[in-house]
Each structure stands twice: as C-alpha cells, then as structure tokens.
Amino acid sequence: MREAQLTHPAVRPRSSTLLGVSIGTLSYFVLYLVAIDSWMTHRSLSAGRGVELNPLMDWLYVHGGVLVFLGFKLTLTVLCLIWINQRAPHPHARLAVLIALSIYLPIAGIHIVGLYS
User: Fold this and answer.
1) Which domain holds residue 113?
2) Contact 83/30 with Cβ under 8 angstroms?
3) Which of 49, 55, 103, 114 is 20 to 30 A from 13, comparing alpha carbons?
4) DSSP string covering 84-106, please?
C-alpha cells in the first residue's frame, strides 16, 4: 500500500527540469543572455547607433548612467531568477524560465547580428 501511495501522481515529486535541463542551469543561461543584452545595449547607445526600447531602462540610462542601468537590470534579473529557482518544481517556475528564454534568445541574437552588420 505504501508503494502505491508514493507512485500516485499527486504524491510523486515534480520535475525541476525543462526540456531535460535543470532550471538552475537555464537560470544561469538567462542571466548570461541578459548580461549580453545589457552590455550590447550600452555599447550601441554609447556609439549612438541604437535606442533602448524599454522606457524605464532608457530613463535609468539617461539619468542614472551606465552603472545604474547595468546594476538595476542585472539585480532585478538575479532576484527574479532566485525566486524562480526556489520554486523550480512548480510548473509556473518552468513557464517563467521558458518565457525569459523566448524573450532574451532573440534579443541576444539581434545584438550579435548587429555586431557584424
């Protein structure tokens, strides 16, 4: 009887992986993508070749400077990723990582393509 209870779907531990990769590893990858986005945005803004599309981040960049811009963006990302990692087995945590990846993979790709054009 005890074995049957452990294999019941409601009792079985939830997975902390997404597409076979741990949420922690994916969180580090999201942080890496955000760092690429932040640094490349700074480079394009300082060269006068780009614009920051997020109005809040644009205001921080203009009025606070580069360190405030980078610090705020990376700190907020780290806090969100800590929150996600604490809830890794929950389906919404996995969804949050998937959403972050679907946003920042194309953004990092656009920045990288912009380097070579």
Assistant:
1) 73-117
2) no
3) 103
4) HHHTTTSHHHHHHHHHHHHHHHH
21-22 vs 17-18, strand pairing mode: antiparallel
Name the nearest CA neighbour of 99 among 38, 37, 36, 27.
27
Rounded Cα gap, residues 23 and 27, in angstroms? 6
For 54-107, the pLDDT digits (tens) are 999 999 999 999 999 999 999 999 999 999 999 988 888 889 999 999 999 999
- Which pLDDT belongs to residue 88? 87
Answer whether residue 4 is part of any domain: no
Amino acid at 28: Y
Q: Does residue 15 lie within any of the structural domains?
A: no
